[in-house]
């Protein structure tokens, strides 16, 4: 029986939260269709994502991308998709306790990602960055000073308590991939803030490097499928939001 | 064998995210220890929550409350705790597809709750409301105009597509309890904004009323265990943030 293909629905042109899903698919080496990056003629492109958001696709409705279609199943929410895929492809602990802790860590990473996003959109996503730049500067200063160090200390402690190799269980899981992507994203958005905060967490830096070196991921990261960060996604580099030199 | 008791760790004095956990325990009619509301002499109170946050409790570390201790298991993140309890007490769909959709909806409710929180703390949680009141007024206006209607339309569509009785599956689940609590909270925080937006979602209003009338929940809601909303939690009533009259 032919394998039913995975179809990812996410905005074209930015890594964003869709990238958390892609990393699992790429590390697992399973084929997938990236609907947002198909052409409109193939039924993809931005129109497919708009159709998802407007509830015009068959299957269970998604509030926002990313969404994953797998046969008749349609699911959304990054953490739900990641766990679903990871459990099917050897990238998630399957026993109950580690599964619960993996979910907990994935949602804590999602909280951190949301706080990064909100540094450039503190007032609302319906306004442009330029309309809330002053507030963003204050929000980013608060984030780098009070929030990011607490998150980094937490994940460093979790890694350390688990032996230092992976965040949960005994094998690399989707949580480690998500941590990798989040660290890379924060390093892009706040180069100086990142360098400073990571001085307190050499174990996390080493984890980032180990994930980056995984053969399939390494090949993916240097391929054209890997979208560069830019100023349209979660992780944006606005120099005025970084720690002053 | 005596049942191992559940222990909830959450800030005393505010319903907040801990209330999502309490509603499941109360609706299921299972006993639990509310550690934050115990006295310091009993090993509870605010000191127990601070110990949790500072990583001084045994078991897997939590970034933030709520956390749940159940025997040797310690888990955090509201959505993870709610699903864990609900699956054990007949308040969650157990088949894979409905389980995935329940998780998806619970996380979408969590996103809405976070956006409500951020209306009064757009710049950062390390500052007082009074230090970001001007920004909060703008953020709340955006939330009520652009975000809340989209969330309400989404949940109303999901409810409708599922037949109108419950949000997912065929029985009341933790997702319906979370929707109830979120609607009650938004109604507290923004009485005028809530009345206006709910005109478009009579089905959700009816769901709220059905959940409120469940015997065990109804008894709980009129008991002293149910904490009133106040200006310390997620849902705060600052009249200047509501829709103008």
Notes on the protein architecture:
The structure is a homodimer of 245-residue chains. With 245 residues, chain A is of the alpha+beta class. Chain A folds into two domains: 6-88, 3-Layer(aba) Sandwich (Glutaredoxin), CATH 3.40.30; 96-241, Glutathione S-transferase Yfyf (Class Pi), Chain A, domain 2. Helices cover 51% and strands 6% of the residues of chain A. The radius of gyration of chain A is 18 Å and the shape is globular. The termini of chain A are far apart. Chains A and B meet through strand 4, helix 3, helix 4 and helix 5 of A and strand 4, helix 3, helix 4 and helix 5 of B.
Topology:
Two copies of one chain form a homodimer.
Chain A: E1 6-9, H1 18-28, E2 32-34, H2 46-53, E3 67-70, E4 73-76, H3 78-88, H4 96-120, H5 133-161, H6 174-189, H7 191-198, H8 202-212, H9 215-221
């Amino acid at each position: 029986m032919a394998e039913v293909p995975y179809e990812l629905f996410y905005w074209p042109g930015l890594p964003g939260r869709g990238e958390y899903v892609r990393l699992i698919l790429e590390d697992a080496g399973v084929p997938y269709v990236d609907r947002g990056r198909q052409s409109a003629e193939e039924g993809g492109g931005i129109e497919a994502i708009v159709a998802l958001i407007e509830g015009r696709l068959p299957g269970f409705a998604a509030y926002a991308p990313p969404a994953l279609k797998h046969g008749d199943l349609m699911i959304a929410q990054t953490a739900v998709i990641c766990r679903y895929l990871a459990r099917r492809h050897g990238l998630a602990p399957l026993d109950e306790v580690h599964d619960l802790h993996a979910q907990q860590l994935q949602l804590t990473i999602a909280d951190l990602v949301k706080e990064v996003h909100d540094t450039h959109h503190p007032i609302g996503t319906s306004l442009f960055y330029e309309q809330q730049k002053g507030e963003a500067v204050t929000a980013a200063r608060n984030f780098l000073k009070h929030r990011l160090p607490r998150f980094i200390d937490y994940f460093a402690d979790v890694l350390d308590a688990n032996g230092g190799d992976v965040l949960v269980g005994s094998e690399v899981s989707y949580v480690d991939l998500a941590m990798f992507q989040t660290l890379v994203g924060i390093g892009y958005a706040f180069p100086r803030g990142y360098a400073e905060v990571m001085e307190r967490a050499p174990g996390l830096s080493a984890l980032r490097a180990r994930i980056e070196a995984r053969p399939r991921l390494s090949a993916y990261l240097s391929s054209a499928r890997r979208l560069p960060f830019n100023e349209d996604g979660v992780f944006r580099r606005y120099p005025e939001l970084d720690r002053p030199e």
